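Entry:
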Amino acid sequence: MSYAANDSQLPPSPCPGEILLTGPSSSVTSAAPPAPLPASSRPEQDPVPGEPAVGLRDVATGYDGVSVLHDLSLEIGRGEFVGIVGPSGSGKTTLLRLLTGRAEHHRGEVEVLGRKVRHGRAPDGVGYVPQLEIIDWDFPLTVEQVVLLGDTQHSRPVPWFSRAEKRRAHELLERLGLAGLERRRIRELSGGQRQRMFLARALLRRCELLLLDEPTSGVDLATRGDVLRLLGDLHHLGLTVVLTTHDLNFVAAHLPRIVCLNQEITADGVPAEVLTPEALERTYGAPMRVLHDRGRVVVVDDEQIELHAAPDHRAGRVEHDHTPDLPLGAEAGPQPLPGDDAEA
């Protein structure tokens, strides 16, 4: 079930039993750093011990019978922290939808936490955080309601939530630095608060695998750092974290493993081995330079883009190349064409 201004233009809900608020984007601002999470936030289930968190073997996936991704073979072990990078339209979001049962499975084997994933059915133990840009922030819901609606699949078949469910939601909000905001409308939250609200929503499912689609998109530098530190806290508590991002330098500087994607996997490994000019050109279709600064990998454009100089408007002065030079004191006016007589 999906609540939106126009459902016909939106993707299906991330998981059956969840409500995804989708719609126009809105501006975001930074938020206060979240408090460290206590050990009680550790995932409470382990569906199939010993199996990898994600296992893909020769997979093709997409929509309406058309494959967006093909020849995917990927294994992500439990407890890993992995970034998925690639250009727009490369299939990053489709990969996450595949792992939550939302994308069609055309070929191959897909397993999450040791269980096969079926289209239209969300696997247990998986939390999903959508892109903030697709959320309709004017939808009339409170922070508490958004968090509680994240786990209706395991809730009672009644149109209200129990005291135990509300208590757990409040505990998660407190641990994520959102205590006292339970009744606040979601449109009143800052960017960092919005991201932490959706993290609480995902953690309400007692997830072991946390999937995040562009968690740092549209936020400022301070909020980006807050989100990354919070994900680090969750990772240290035992969660497997997989996120998509466009920010190569953010990923290269902080994550231990990167998967480059463009309809297929073009590179996979630690940043120093994956972020090479050759691998990046295969992934993005454009040359890039890779620099090394104090042990960090920095990716920059291979060529400097030169823009034409704008007219000089200072003090009302505008220079135009086509304006002829005139003798001092002469008035500008129609000029004779070459070959014309100056006098009639």
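The chain has a mean pLDDT of 78.
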